[in-house]
Amino acid sequence: MIGWHGAMNRQVQGSVFIGNASELDPLETHLVETQAGRFCVRRWRDEWIVHSAVCPHMLGPLNEAELDKHGNITCPWHGYRFDVSTGQNIDAKCNDLMQAPRLIERDGKLYLD
Ligand code: FES
Question: Is there an atom of ligand 1 within 6 Å of 36 CB?
């Protein structure tokens, strides 16, 4: 399931508010729209992580990609794979993922900075 946060994200001192960490469903991929692009916020090994939601090959929707047990996602359009911790295209078929903003937790709230 995918959570959509594009309409409700708001800038707070240059940061984009995602939500209260305790209220975000850890089983969902949360799609976040920012001025820098679209990003996925999701849980991986008991941590919130962030990565680009846009495939660098032909702009496929990486928010629809499942995160496997190795921390890799596979683009649903042409099957290129990416390591979400480094952003690297592990097939060496296209560019790496766009660099993601920092994900920070402040007072129990998650932001992209
Ligand atoms: S658009 Fe992602 S692999 Fe082609």
Answer: no
**Does the beta carbon of 55 lie inside 6 Å of ligand 1?**
yes
| Residue-range domains of the chain with CATH | 2-112 (2.102.10.10)
**83 CB neighbour count, 10 Å cutoff:** 16
Hunting for tokens 């209220």 — which residue is that?
A: 23
> What dihedral do alpha carbons 67, 46, 31, 86 form, nearest 10°?
-60
Q: Which of 52, 54, 55 is the pocket-test mutation for ligand 1 (most atoms within 8 Å of CB)? A: 55
Q: In angstroms, what is the span from residue 78 Cα to ligand 1's centroid?
A: 5
34-82 pLDDT per residue, tens: 988 999 999 999 999 999 999 999 999 999 999 999 999 999 999 999 9
